[in-house]
Amino acid sequence: MSSVAKAGEAVSPPAAEPPKGRRGLPVNLRQSGIYIAFAIIVALFAVLTDGQLLSPGNISNIIVQNSYILILAIGMILVIIGGHIDLSVGSVVALTGAIAAVLMVNHDVPWPLALLLTLLAGAAIGAWQGYWIAYFGIPAFIVTLGGMLMFRALTLTVLDNQRIGPFPDDVRTIANGFLSGYLGNIGLGFLGGADLFTLLVALALVGGFVVLGWRRRQGRIGYGQQVDPIAVFAAKNALAVVVVMFIAVQLARFKNLPWVLVLLGALVLAYTTLTNRSVFGRRIYAMGGNPLAARLSGVNVKSVTFWLFVNMGVLSAVAGIVFAGRLNQAGPTAGTMFELDAIAAAFIGGAAVQGGVGRVIGAITGGLLMGVINNGMSLLGAPSERVMLIKGLVLLAAVAFDIWTKRRSGAAR
After folding, report:
1. How many angstroms separate the CA atoms of 364 and 344, rounded?
2. Which among 257, 286, 303 is the end of a domain?
3. Which residues are listed as membrane-spanning (predicted)?
């Protein structure tokens, strides 16, 4: 075709080139990197521990021992998506656990009422901090740093610098208990017996996961958005199904589903729906991505910020109840360093330092990754300083990876 068009001839536009940066790996590294890293670390520790990491009892222990960090990570990922940070959650965990202990143990308040009052106390703490951040304009870092000190002091005051316990059996069951085998056990060949109810719950979960993933994919195709190739989509779902069913089989072989896992599952489902399908969730992302643009588009940034911290206070109270119930007592040093673990889980799980990016399931994966490192190093007999070193390096690598992927995607445009 001649490079010069004749007069009067319409010149057809050149064929659109594929956008740069789409070639290479068929997966989005920024979204999938945490899951790849998690799989590698699990496989590594499984080999180093001769399979102990993936034994039925140890998998159950990993979930139960890290449940309160995972609960905090759900709230923290929302705060970070909104462009803020919360350094006080460890102290709030200690204070709310102390409030629950004083109500139930010292004043014989029925445990359901005591738990409700504890959640309300967590909401009040979050509202206190949210007011200063949202309506007075003090940066969240400063407010929650002050809160970390104040709420720890209040914990010492409430407990009179003593440990209070034991908790009622029902509260301990929430943190340490397991569901009963409602449908009995079935044989799994060389694996032995397993709880049928747990297996059916897992099958329903993976079935719903696959259906929702397919519907989301079809919706994106309908809107002309880019989606993974069908082979990549199928591989991702197959891997997720295998992982979930493996964990379910191991739990079913041990003591069935932990109650705290049921609680976590409900929270993950609720907050994933909140972030993906609600107006409030979209406003959180908009506020974190560009606060000025969000405000100009009609988002009440102050209100969203306020309720983010109220929510963080409530989830901190839930974590405080679970942690105190697991230890069967409330203590002055409870929750120490929990804020750092929750923040690390969020960033390792894909949250962006500047806000506006992150997923609830990513934060859960990040928290589990830290839990696997703790557990695996413990099984290997590693000293605590080496565990802290590894966790610090993993956090640094996660943030560096986030910055690298941003620069890479920016250079590809």
Report:
1. 11
2. 257
3. 32-50, 62-81, 87-106, 113-132, 138-159, 196-215, 227-251, 257-274, 304-324, 336-353, 360-382, 388-405
The band of 346, judged by pLDDT with boundaries at 50, 70 and 90, is very high
The predicted pLDDT at position 311 comes to 97
Q: Which residues pair with 186 in a beta bridge?
A: 194
Q: Is 368 within the bounds of a domain?
A: yes
> What is the percent of the chain with per-residue pLDDT over 70, rounded to a whole number?
88
> How far apart (Å, rounded) are the C-alpha atoms in residues 151 and 256?
37
- Amino acid letter, 163: R
Residues 318 and 323: their CA atoms lie apart, in Å, by: 9
pLDDT, tens digit (0-9, with 9 covering 90-100), for 43-98? 888 998 998 998 988 999 999 999 999 999 999 999 999 999 999 999 999 999 99
Using DSSP, state whether 105 is helix, strand or coil.
helix
What's the chain's Rg over C-alpha atoms?
A: 24
Side-chain-side CA neighbours of residue 271 (13 Å): 28
Q: Which of 225, 257, 289 is the last residue of a domain?
A: 257
Asked if the model's pLDDT at residue 223 lies above 50, the reply is yes
Do 187 and 250 fall within a single domain?
yes
Q: What are phi and psi of 187, to 5 degrees?
A: -85, 140
DSSP string, 60-79: HHHHHHTHHHHHHHHHHHHH
Q: Is 101 helix (H, G, I), strand (E, B) or coil?
A: helix
> Does residue 105 form part of some domain?
yes
pTM of the model: 0.87
Average pLDDT over residues 267-283: 91
Number of domains in the chain: 2
Within 13 A of 268's CA, how many CA atoms are on the CB side?
A: 18
In the chain, how long is the greatest CA-to-CA distance?
95
- Tell me the C-alpha to C-alpha distance, in Å, between residue 254 and each of 164, 251, 326: 31, 5, 19
Phi, psi angle pair for 262, to nearest 5°: -60, -45
> 3-state secondary structure string, 119-177?
HHHHHHHHHHHHHHHHCCCCCHHHHHHHHHHHHHHHHHHHHCCCCECCCCHHHHHHHHC
